[in-house]
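Review form for a predicted model. The reviewer records the input and the model, then writes brief findings.
Reviewer: anonymous (R2)
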Amino acid sequence: MKRVAFVFTSAPHGSSAGREGLDALLATSALSEDIGVFFIGDGVFQILPDQRPDKILSRDYIATFRVLPLYDIEQCYLCAESAHERGLAENSAWVVDVEVLAAEALREKLHQFDVVLTF
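Model under review:
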């Protein structure tokens, strides 16, 4: 079975990419056991806790990332540089457990996957 990586690069609000990526991720988990999830660039905002989407008349799907362990999705990685550039601490209480990696280590990890889907 192929190893599938899901890369989240866009902010959660103002675009449906994150929600669509999460839907695809959960659907794919029924077909593959070897899934990696990467949060890069503005994608780090996808798992930032305590967001208030109701204030901008948006739906809250971010908390749904919390269900990833229930789907046996445990390989989650966050780009340290992306978090730092956005003023976020690497040790923040993200809504999902992530391994924080330097950009180079994250690229090496990503290259271990056969298929890469970006949202």
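Findings: The chain has a mean pLDDT of 87.
Further findings: The two ends are 22 Å apart (CA to CA).
Recommendation: see findings above.
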